[in-house]
Amino acid sequence: MSGSILCLAHVSEAGDALPKASYEVLGTALKLTKQLNAKLTIGLIGADVTAASGTVANAGAERILAVTGPDFATAHYASDVAAAEAICRSAGAELVLAPATSRFMRVLAGVAHRLNGCVDTHVTALEAVNGELQAMRWHYRQRIEAVIRRDTRPWIVLLESGCNAPWTGAIGAAKVEEIAVTLPEAAKRTVVTGVRAPKSDAQTIRPDADLLFVAGAGWTKKQADGKPHIDQAETLILDFLRASGASLGGSKSLVDQTGESQAVLGFMTHLNQVGQTGSTPRHPKGLSTCCHGEEPHVVGWRFINERRAVNLDPNCGWARGKADVLYVADAFEVLAKLNALLAQRSQTNFEAVAQGA
Amino acid sequence: MMTIAQRVSFELVPVDASASGFADAHSTAALLAETIQGIAGVDRSRLLVFGGWESASRGAGATMQLVGERLGILDQFQGVDQLSVQGDGSFEVLERIEAGRHQVSVCAGPPALFGWATGNLPEARNNPQVGMANMRTVMPALQKAKSVPLPSGGLHFLSASPPKQQRQTRVVKDLSAEQVAQEIAGWIGK
User: Fold this and answer.
1) What letter would DSSP give residue B20?
2) Residue ranges per domain, chain A?
3) By the CB < 8 Å criterion, does B72 face chain A?
4) pLDDT at A316
5) For the domain bounded by A4-188, which CATH number is listed?
6) Could you tell me the pLDDT band of residue A348, with boundaries at 50, 70 and 90?
7) How far apart are CA A61 and CA B111, in angstroms?
8) ipTM associated with this complex
């Protein structure tokens, strides 16, 4: 039983709202608040939370707490852990919910330790069953699904994105209680100097895309003429990503080729890897091509709703039973035709807009 | 162990405890921190702690941070792909963040903790001499490893099972590339 729930968030990089996943956490927090007849507090961290707090002003929280100032503008362990600790202590909540952003994944375990509490990450659902809180999370990287509960409080739970409905409401003027946090010199030894995009011709990882395009190692193998066609594969895939707005994932065998000095797709890095030792992205749709491995289909696709695959093996054991549709076809040919269709559709849409104007 | 021992010289400090993915991160971290503190001659003010970030088996997402807190390390980095030591002893760290990007930070120096991701360096080469030297100390260390039961830490598993997700896959064999492309284009556009 939790009498008090804290929904913790940090401002987005743009500074005018919260990350999308924070609104999903807020939706879950409101659901639990109702189920447990609890009180909800919202805690915010950022250089300036004025705009972001307005987006949650009408959520129904009893209090909105914030730690603000230039020291809390960037994601940095020593400052974030101090800010989150101060908010948690002020809120006195038994349950703390937060989005599993890279910023919070870095620090909230440390906060749990400071509060003599406990923490769980990779949680996909939280339910109150007979007044008892139960969390669903994955172990062994999306291979085993477990339901857990904890005796220790406060319990900090980091919720994965894309698993819960986001809260939406009108923007308002929030009454924010500022908590003063002064960082010691020891907490200023690290300075965040910026953000660097991976070495690639184009940005290929788009977490908010509707479609995940997974490329397998088959793209770099010998084709029907007995030769690999890396350049053609690169062009086809990049053209498809541009035309469809899809995010790019790669199988482990494909991204590992970079480190093994084999012929590789120049834009593919370990950051693109999906599967057990890569990421498990969340997109409404997924299209895999030239991919025969277990990991992309079983683990990497765990949270992809609609799945289709293109490969030359009709008996591919990992596509069968995991994909909704398996097209037995040459991915080079299919993608070339698909790119032409998408380009044609884009041109038609452009002309329609131009005529309407 | 045999693979690593042939590549780099090290002192092994083993603890015989559960390596299960279900072990509680808090108990695991407490044991690791206690073990690190017990290593003779370790200068905590110059300590750099490295560990796996989101390993395939454990992936608790919390163990390294808890170890760092217990050791009083305030400079912690997770999802690290690159570490470059600068001329003044500081180091530049690249941490994975959303959308396939890296956050760049400069830390004044040790102590610090790193949850390592993949990086971009090749594996060190095998060196039989290094392997032989390590074997002289590794085997006795393993024999002396103390066995420690990990407490549950108030964590209760109500259920644990592999997902039973099985889809009825429609296998399409008889369409031309153009027809497949049209079907996929229609599906993408829905």
Assistant:
1) -
2) 4-188, 211-356
3) no
4) 74
5) 3.40.50.620
6) confident
7) 40
8) 0.91
Domain tally for chain B?
1
Ramachandran sector of residue A354 (left: φ over 0; alpha: ψ -120 to 50; beta: rest): alpha
Is A211-356 a CATH 3.40.50.1220 domain? yes
B60 vs A121, A335, A345: nearest CB: A121
pLDDT digits (tens, 9 = 90+) for A77-127: 999 999 999 999 999 999 999 999 999 999 999 999 999 999 999 899 999
Grouping H, G, I as helix, E, B as strand and the rest as coil, residue B165 is coil
Distance (Å, whole) CA A258 – CA B122:
10
- Average confidence (pLDDT) over B106-118: 95
Identify whether B113 is part of a domain. yes
The residue with tokens 């899809």 is: A246
Taking residue B80's Cβ as centre, other Cβ atoms within 10 Å add up to 21
Does the pLDDT value for residue A250 go beyond 80? yes
Contacts of B155 in chain A (CB under 8 A): 118, 148, 150
pLDDT at A294 > cutoff 70? no
The per-residue pLDDT for range B9-55, each reduced to its tens digit, is 999 999 999 988 899 999 999 999 999 999 999 999 999 999 998 87
With 70 as the cut, is the pLDDT of residue A293 above it? Answer: no
Q: State the SS3 of chain A.
A: CCCEEEEEEECCCCCCCCCHHHHHHHHHHHHHHHHHCCEEEEEEEECCCHHHHHCCCCCCCCEEEEEECHHHCCCCHHHHHHHHHHHHHHHCCCEEEEECCHHHHHHHHHHHHHCCCEEEEEEEEEEEECCEEEEEEEECCCCEEEEEEECCCCEEEEECCCCCCCCCCCCCCCCEEECCCCCCHHHHCEEEEEEECCCCCCCCCCCCCCEEEEECHHHHCECCCCCECHHHHHHHHHHHHHHHCCEEEECHHHHHCCCCCCCCCCCCCHHHEECCCCECCCCCEEEEECCCCHHHHHHHCCCCCEEEEEECCCCCCCCCCCCCEEEECCHHHHHHHHHHHHHHHHHHHHHHHHHHC
**Common-topology check for domains A4-188 and A211-356:** yes
Chain A residues with beta carbon closer than 8 angstroms to that of B66: 109-110, 112-113
* Chain A interface includes B180 (CB < 8 A): yes
